């Protein structure tokens, strides 16, 4: 079963195309370094819930859209190896992403798969 890194972030709608460009580069980098899959999704049906919701989780504002993403790996050990290479890759150097979304409101974590049907 694959190991999964999951991400949720709020991106200003005005920055969506810039985000997509950065994501395409990031996806290429992760895949070249060994990730099995790299997926980015734009919120389409993510209502602001009364208590909890994707928009609430990232404190999305009226002019922002929620992005839900995940990357899969063979194992956590392999993920750790790949992420070290990714973080050192010059294609992802710089602060371009800081101009596109607020990383302080990003939610992320690693997950061990236990079921796939």
UniProtKB/TrEMBL annotation:
Entry superkingdom: Bacteria
Name the UniProt record assigns to this protein: DUF1428 family protein
Organism encoding this protein: Neorhizobium petrolearium
